Amino acid sequence: MRIVLLLTFLLVSTPFFSQTEDEKQIKAIYDEALTNGKAYDWLNYLSNQIGGRLSGSVQAQHAVEYTKEQLDSLGLDKVWLQPVMVPKWVRGVPEFAYFETKPGLTTNVPICALGGSVSTPAGGLKASVVEVKGIEDLEKLGRDKIAGKIVFYNRPMDPTLINTFSAYSGCVDQRYSGAAEAGKYGAVGVIVRSMNLRLDDYPHTGSMGYGETPVNQRIPAAAISTNGAELLSTTLKLNPDAKFYFKQNCKQLDDVQSYNVIGEITGSTYPNEIMVVGGHLDSWDLGDGSHDDGAGCVQSMDVLRLLKETGYKPKRTLRVVLFMNEENGMRGGNKYAEVARNKNEEHVFALESDSGGFTPRGFSIDASAENVKQIQGWRDLFEPYLIHMFYEGGSGADIGPLKEEGMVLAGLRPDTQRYFDHHHAENDTFEHVNKRELELGAATMASLVYLIDKYGTIPTKKIKG
Asked: What range does the record give for the signal peptide (predicted)?
């Protein structure tokens, strides 16, 4: 009798847990990623056997060949290369810089040429320095105080902003447009504080542009490390007459052909509705591009593998796209969207990973209010994996050109507090990527792709192309 009563008590008092089909599928995705994930091995090869993959480089071509080979090995329904012409900018021999407080007394500082910059004269460039906090200061100073000098942009990223991409957006204009704007006031060169929240000795490169500036009036631009920027700023306060010298040998060559790498699983029910997941295969040349954006590429590749390995049969066509030339031209993203429109393809969803391989926290969603609410409604399915951020916002640079009314775009959002320690710098290397964090990101992306594919998006107004 006691045994019967005890069993009855246990049955009544113990909650009955029954996993839903979605919970089972998502758990299977995470289990597969964390036990048999391929992303880390793929990234190891991209980073350590190929290295930095600047558009137009031999390394970029090797990355195209390697990733196509790996996609071929997954047994997808189709894998192909999409030709795209890309710019070819080369850095040349390493840059060199110092500041001089009096004749013969110099202090070396770490710099790197900004992507797209012209070179200095063959013997280097040496001039007095004017320090500013941003482009808006140029007009206040005027041509008389700038002409013949090197402009030193020294506005730091705002450390009080928890969203580090907001901090980056707040000062990246000085990197991209600083040379073009300073040249209007007669500056002979610019030095830009690196886009980095910590103090270190790694200068961070990145894209810059000259706008409509005639070729013969373009001035050289370089990034200086944050430690170097602090030291230069302090020196100028003590000795405003200090001079800065730098030498760089970069060059812009003719465009060359490269490729987007694409693989797909054909949808079983709605094959004409295409869902894209991707990252950009090119990187800057200083490190090996592990976080930016090798991580996003291998995660996107693993999304299709994870769904296949867990036995999921997609209703819609799932396509992985490894875009070329995001860093200094956006040619790959624009070409993909152009071809999609010319073929009258219907893209209903696109997801990009381009914020590093750190611990995933959720997604930003660029869609109608109804579709944002739909995705937010799946929060409970993600919470066991500590994914909690589902908010309206931007998606990704490469998938942006695909945007049409009624389409859902999304971006994986990892924890970014350490991202700008490595962004576009020599220390963006494989050793700084955590295997488990990378795998969690791939599983999180695959889970969202699964849910979107299974339930579809909420129709607002679909426009093909």
From this structure: 1-18
